[in-house]
Structure formats: structure tokens, C-alpha cells
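Batch 3, record 17
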Amino acid sequence: MKIKPSAEMDSLITDVKLDCFGPIANLHWPEPGKINLIIGGNACGKTFLLKALYVMMRTIEEFQRGDERRTLAELLADKLYWTFQVERIGELVSRGKEKRLEFSAKLGHDEFKYGFGKDTKGSISNVAYTGSKREANTVFLPAKEVLTLHRIILKSREQDKLFGFDDTYLDLARALQSPPQKGKNYAAFAEARDTLESIVGGKVDYDDASGRWLYTRGSTTFPIGTTSEGVKKIAILDTLLGNRYLTPKSVVFIDEPESALHPAALAKFLNIVEKLSETGMQFFIASHSYYVVKGLQLIAQKNKISIPVASFGAEGAVTFADVKDGLPKNGIIDEAIELHRQEVELALQ
Amino acid sequence: MQFGPHPATHLFHIEKSTVYADRPDGVKMAEFLLLDNTNVLLVEAKSSSPRPGNLADFPVFLTEIREKMTNALALFVGIRLGRHTPAAQAEVPSNLATLNLSTANFRFVLVIRGHKDEWLPPLQEALNLELRGLAGAFSISAPFLAVINDDMARRKKLIA
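Prediction for the assembled complex:
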């Protein structure tokens, strides 16, 4: 479905092209929307796509931020190295192909593009960005919560400089510690925080004195280690909205939101995503879950909004649709149908 | 939908039975019982069901199916227990008339013509919940329900 360009699209990622990028042989996604769903089997490239876009965003955001002196190419090489954690950047080029890896995408009206071959070790010469400094922040919310591992992530990366926790984890750990920024209060953010806090039945805050995360329910405080994974995951988004690390121009990548969340909590979470997208935030969500896929379909149809879906199929084929028009054929629904078929067979055997 | 062909000895058109014909107003009934291998299928056929998203009709639909299955099972067992006239008992075909009721595997089958495959699982789950009381009362082991479309019914040789 064609999305009319508007001022709202000024800070959104569009026109995404990847060639020979890891498991992604060829992808052209002309019109991502404000909320985007990415589905497909294991190891087909969903997280790779999220991370490729994440690398672009963080490269742009760190470029010329504060006293940052690295060039765009240096930043990009560092982000690729530490996000994908490959010894040589050239290892990101799809195997068995003699072609170069190429990436390009638009951010608003600006284009970011780069390319390199399989022999590229640590530096990339072919990088271009037509835009300028970007004040907003992008974040990647992984399937696993990071509050419990917060200090370990920071230590293993900042002190020990070890592979293990990639830049999505490091950037998130740092974002969670970011002091509250001055800025506008957005009603949608306050509403979202209220809903998030109602899901977990309390609040999670960082205690500077002890250097630990604490969960408070009513008048009782608990160490974060005793809280559930779901509470910790929800608390991460709540914290990033509260300290204004996320703003309406932020892009948020979410890998498997369904992990550790009860379906009822997940439904509320998806509604929060929709409300936040109305402020201008852009979301890319990779999922294996029937509840996410169906939940987003219902949100799209109820609110009459487009939610583009990229379906990763066999051998790297990617097809695009809009869940507002109904779900495309996909493995998640196919499996629900298969389970039903097995139940019928059992009943009638 | 054209059900069958099924051997006359295995098929009881309970909706056309004389006992049902004398029913009070508003009593609903499934279409037929079929002895299929070791299973006794209580079958209801619909040409449609509330489309996904048609929330208001859905609970009414579930209640209707539960009532039909409940009445069909209760009437069949009532006839077999000799609580109705000999004429009514004679309408039950031989294989169903001699079935050991204490060990019979009853199964509820809802066939919906034209229903897409992907619409069936949620309906199966909802009706599983709706019928669990009835299944429990008669100690019918799970899986006790099959919600299928006409394509699946054809593959299971329930319809031509």
C-alpha cells in the first residue's frame, strides 16, 4: 500500500535495500511504516535485518555527537564490528557470492549507503550519508531482559573489551543509565508509562547508591533478581521513556517481544507501541508469536493504519504485505492450522 | 452439503426422528449420529459461522452448538435406555442400537461449509471450552471435538 509522504515521514526509515548481507541475499523494502512486523523461520535473517538497520541508525546518531571525532566510515566499521561481532567485516558478505555487500536506506529525505567486499578487514571506504547530525536516539530491545546483566554488560564491554554482548546490549545498558534529559512531556509517553507500570504492578528504578536496579510494589522494594523476566522487560521501556532517552523521533527495534510476556500483557504492550508510534516513533518488531502477529493485525484494522510486514521465506526470499489487509500466508498461522489438523486427526482416528 | 454415503446401519438422522418431531418449541438438535469405526460422531453442519471479528454473534453461536450437541447426546442415550417408545427405539439403526454405551467413544463434529482453514483453530478452542462440561458429564475423553470445513470433511469421507 502506498504511504503518502508527509512531514511525519521525515524521520522514518524507508527504502531499505540490502544485497549479500549475511543470510539476506537481496531485500528491497520500499515503504516501511511507523510500525513494522518482520516474521520468518529461524536463521532466515530477521535479526540480521534489525541489526543492519540499527547499525545505520547508531552510526548516524553518534556521528558528530558531542565531541565524537570519528568519521562516518570509522563509526560504521566500529558499529558493524561490535554489533555483528565478526573478526573481519568482510565476513558479513553472504557466503558463496562473489558480489559485494551493499546497504542503503533513507532516513527521512536523507540517504545512507555503504558497500564492501568479502576481503574487507576493518575499514570501509565506500560510505555516504546525505544528512546531518541527529539528536534522537535509537534503541534495540532484545528478547532477553538486560537489567540483571546490566553491570556485567558494561564491564565485559567497557573494561574487558570482550565479544559476547554486542552493541545492541551495550547501547541499551548505557541508555538505561542515562540521566533524565530535559524536554517536552508527551501525553502519550505518560500514558504509556502508566500502562507499563500497571502491567508490572509497580516501578523499577536504578538506585545510584547501591548501583542496583530495584522493583517497588506499593511500599515494598525488591531486588531486581527476585522479579520476573516479564517485569524486567517492561521496565526497560518504561525507563527509556522516563529518562527521555526515547523521543518521538526515535526508532525502536524489538526482537521477540513475546519472550517472557503473558499474552494479555503482550496485547497491552502492542497497544502501547501503537500509541507511541502516533507520536512519531518508528518500530520494527521481529516475532515468532501468533499473539504478536494477530495482535498487530487487529490494531491495524481497528485503527485503520498500515502495518507493513516483511515475511522471510525459504532461501532468503522476502515478501511484503500490509497486515491491515489481512495476514499473508505465514509459518506462524500455518503452524496453528497444523496443530488444529493434528487435533482433528486425533479426535476422529 | 451432501453427507454420506454411509451404511444405513451406522447412521441415525436424529434431527428427523419422531421423538424430536414432538419436541417443545425452541429445542435444538444436531443433524445425525454416525458410527465411524470405533467413534460415535455427533455431527452438526453449518453453512456459515460468525466471521472472525463478528463479536456479538459469537457467544450465541457457541451456545447454539453446545445445545445441539447436548440435546443430541441426551436424546440418543435416552432412547437407548428405553425411556422412549419402541417405535422410537426402532428408528435407531442396528449398529448404534447395540453399541456399548459405557465404552463408546463419542465425538462432537462441527462441519462449516466454506470456512477457511485459518478460521478454524480459534473456533475449535472456543468450542472445546464450551463443550468441556458436557464431555466431563459423560466422561468423554479429549480430544472430543473436531471443527472442520467441507474440504476436511470430504477428506475424512464424511461428505461426498
